[in-house]
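Q: Could you predict the 3D structure of GTP-binding protein?
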Amino acid sequence: MQRKFPLEKTRNIGIAAHIDAGKTTLTERILYYTGKVHRMGEVHEGSTVMDWMEQEKERGITITSAATTCSWKDHRINIIDTPGHVDFTAEVERSLRVLDGVIALFCGVGGVEPQSETVWRQASRYHIPRLAFVNKMDRVGSDFRRVVRMIRDRLGANAFPVQLPIGSGEHFAGIVDLVAMKAIYYDMENLGTTYTEREIPAEMFEECRDAREQLLGALADYDEEILHHVVHGSAVHEENLHAALRKAVNEIAVVPVFCGAAFKNKGVQRLLDGIVRYLPNPMDIPAVTGLNPFTHK
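A: Sure. Here are the predicted structure tokens for GTP-binding protein:
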């Protein structure tokens, strides 16, 4: 039987993080915006799709890995929501072995926490490409730039923002897309299902321009076309930048950093775009090297 979605348009991803970073809430929003469910499940209500065990509903934490699937822009996305508690690290390890990409979730307040480091090392051991998503930008004390520095310093990742938040805490209003150089504001009347693109706020333009130049400088090491544009100071088209990001992510050379607030329905659709644009499909993954039990070769 012919596949509805070819392998080139399939993404097998996992969402991994420290406990309470918002993994299950993010997954529920993904399922809602992709049309998989018609009502957002909430962890505090015990109504989420992914936390199906009674113990998970009572405690508001993920205990076992749960899998689901959804569609976004003609792509099939298979998702595994993994536990964040240190006691269930083995569950994460088991899941990572079958994934082609990982969304590493970080709390905008807590940043890189102990279990964040553990799952990052696990993903590195299996050579899994990653995107980072700084969640809970609506929380008091959230600091996107500090979290990016922590990802670089504590995880040793070559992390570069592809988005910047507009405000933080109760003033978190939206995001700036550094690839398109547009400000994104979400419509809260329909739970953030739609959004509008506007010009970047004047007070943020210089910071956004500098961040984009840093991103281009990082990608120039892995893409000759981007290098040409950087050297000659010419404009880089969005599609060229997307292609360079995909190449660098697949080579585990660069980790693009997204941001948002899943509970407040901001930033999720742009993360979905990043999943289908940058993470590998099963055809991109090299064959698994095995060991013959008889020859030990």
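Q: Anything worth pointing out?
A: The longest helix spans residues 205-219.
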